[in-house]
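Meet our chain:
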Amino acid sequence: IREFSPFWYRLDAGIKITDMYTPGNPSTPIEQVLNNLRAQKYVLIPTIADDINNAALSALLANPTDRATLITNIRVLIAKYNYDGIDIDFESFICKGCRSTWPNTQPNWIKFIQQQKNKKILIKASKK
């Protein structure tokens, strides 16, 4: 195993990326964990999971300004901790019962992924 991809972040309403590591590990600073993992030559690609409903995620992806802000927020997070990339684990728009909205969301999801690649963000987008 060379890749470390913990579920340390979540996307909340309002394009905010919430840190889930610190509240769960208050006695061990994330920098200490990252230094240990880097010393062991791990590739660090933490996960951002979505914690918003289908309609909110779909609306976020459809709004070019919100999409650009989210991409900027992801880039800032990667730079802050010098991550090797980020795992985008957004699933609410393709959940059971939500598949009917996928045809409208899909073009904006593709734009979101393409715009990240254009910004040279290494991503692993989950496919379910």
Notes: Residues 54 and 97 are 10 Å apart (CA to CA). Strands lie at 3-4, 9-12, 16-19, 43-44, 47-50, 86-89, 123-125.
